[in-house]
Design brief:
Blueprint: H1 16-37, H2 44-65, H3 73-96, H4 103-134, H5 140-145, H6 150-157, H7 175-195, H8 200-217, H9 223-227, H10 230-248, H11 256-271, H12 278-303, H13 311-321, H14 323-345, H15 350-376
Helix pairs in contact: 1-3, 1-12, 1-13, 1-14, 3-7, 3-10, 3-12, 4-7, 4-14, 4-15, 7-10, 8-10, 10-12, 11-12, 14-15
Length: about 375
Amino acid sequence: MDSTPSPPAVTPSRLWSLDVLRGACALAVFLCHWHLWSDFAPRGAFERFVRGFLENGYSAFVNLTWPTGGHHPAVICFFVLSGFCIHYPAALRTLDGQPHPAWSVYFRRRFRRIMPAFWAACLLGLIFVLVEARHPSGSILLGEHATGSPGEISLRFAGLSGFYPREIFGGNYPLTTVAVEIVMYALYPAFHYFASRGHWTGLGLAFLALQVVALQLLNFLTPFWVFNSVLMLGIFWYVGALAADRFVKGRAHVRGIWFLLSWLGFLGLKGIPHFYGLNIIRQDAWAVVCALGMLWALGREARDPGARGRPLIRAMRYSGRISYSVYAMHAPAIMLATWLMIVVIGNRDYLLQLGATFTAALVATMVTFYGVERMFYRPRVE
């Protein structure tokens, strides 16, 4: 029988199934970009086979998960996971009648968790912008990702780009969603105030209203910014926090069949004719699928705790621990590796590009995780 466990203990334990999901999301974003941004023309039968194999895998992923016209499905899942992980310990304290720690402690921990690696990723993106500006590669892809005014790049370094109503590439486009998360972390005390008093319906309606506002802003602002703003992304964070509240209270008994049916319902939404606002409905539906899948996975974790030691699970748990560095560093690493191949080496071999971009992303991830991220932030519970 598929169900989640009874309410957990007051002291939060590390929910390793969430590490697995977090790692899967990071790998999904990276592998999609690795495939799409490795754009040298394949030569010969074997290179065309590799390209076709990756394209078929990407197409299957898109067909099964992507809310077409909206966010990468793994990014939506990241926000659901983030909302869950931030609200989970707070929900435990509320259930036990314990006061929330001083908000100054919360903000210090969030700062140490997010900003050092964020700044490292900003810096690597800036390095790419500078080298591409000084020695243009002639690549349309690299030229687009290297755009960014000094003011925009300064806003990004300051962590304020989540408030800026324009699209910023600046050598590291994925940091746009990290900037939105920074906004959500800053707003969490207000969110907690209402959530701890049980005002979940009002919060949900407020986030839905923000999406309606976002639809209207599409007439005035670039859709790339509108879809990458708190107006759109906030509801995914809310869904995750709501799942944490239900999980802590023992009301999140999600059977595998429910998860499967929700996914099939999402696929049905993808197949209906387009109408105004359909894209955000699809995105919201995918967020629900992610939340149900997360709760189902937590139930599996409780029923089979020994699974955490299996080789594949251990590998995915590790990928979850490095997921932030993967997400933050892979884009400029891929761009820099391609720039080096074009400008410095003068080689446009497709397989070599795949190997170079993969290696560059891996090195940037490991250096950032061990040299920056872990230097400033270590979870109390492993």
